[in-house]
Amino acid sequence: MPSQLEAEPAAAAEIFGDRLELARRFTQALAEHGEERGLIGPLEVPRLWTRHILNSAVAAPLFEGRAADIGSGAGLPGIVLAIARPDVEWTLIEPMERRTIWLTEQAESLGLANVTVARMRGEEWTGGRSFDVVTARAVSALRTLLPFTAPLARPGGKLVLLKGANVAAEIDAAAKQVRRFGLTDVRVDVLGEGQLDEPTRVFVATVSR
Q: Given 15, 50, 128, 132, which is the most exposed site by the fewest CB atoms within 10 A?
């Protein structure tokens, strides 16, 4: 028997506004099909809204222009952010075929005309430094993640990487990569305090050169 989807938190309406119905549809689809399609683990459905959907969506104000989500997986955060920010043009970069099929299905089903799905790894991107913002969530530690996210951002563009509670330690461990890619204005934003049970921590930096 599939796990029960948690009740929709009140914060969902605050965060998604008039896009809430699309967020509900995506959350329901992920709850119904995510585990069987190998997109989320068996323990994730009972905390899908709080741990994944809202955790991703609360970062929406940090995006603009053209954005890329590296290792988009189940669409966390890419599909969620594309729902929340229809004014941003999203490229979801994901190497696994079954995941790109899911991402394409969801973009079409939800009518997300602002989404393009690219089947490849971040380091295989050949479109140059064409993004205003590059994001990733739960992909790898910063020292591993920066070499295949920073090269996709235009000079003056930003990295907005959704991280866990140990982000400060990851920044210390990635000092060499921060220098190598000319990252400036490095900071950690804590988002969703007072809205979410567990706020979202985001590594933010400008790619200065």
A: 128
**What are the 10-residue block averages of pLDDT along the chain, 209 residues in total?**
82 97 98 94 92 97 98 97 98 97 98 98 92 93 95 97 94 97 97 93 96
81 is in an annotated binding site: no
51 is in an annotated binding site: no
Please give the torsion angle defined by the CA atoms of residues 99, 115, 23 and 88, in that order, rounded to the nearest 10 degrees. Answer: 140
Total number of domains constituting the chain: 1
17 known member of a binding site: no
Is residue 183 within 8 Å of 160, Cβ to Cβ?
no
Give the β-pairing of 200-207 and 115-118. Answer: unpaired
Q: Flag whether 196 is marked binding.
A: no
pTM of this structure: 0.96
Q: Tell me the CA end-to-end span of the chain in Å, nearest whole number.
A: 52
Determine the structural domain holding residue 148 and report its residue range. 61-207
Flag whether 123 is marked binding: yes
Please indicate, yes or no, if residue 56 is contained in any of the structural domains: no
Residue 143 is part of a domain; what is its CATH number?
3.40.50.150
What single-letter amino acid sits at 35?
A: E
195 in any annotated domain: yes
Q: Record the tokens describing residue 127, joined without a space.
A: 């479109």
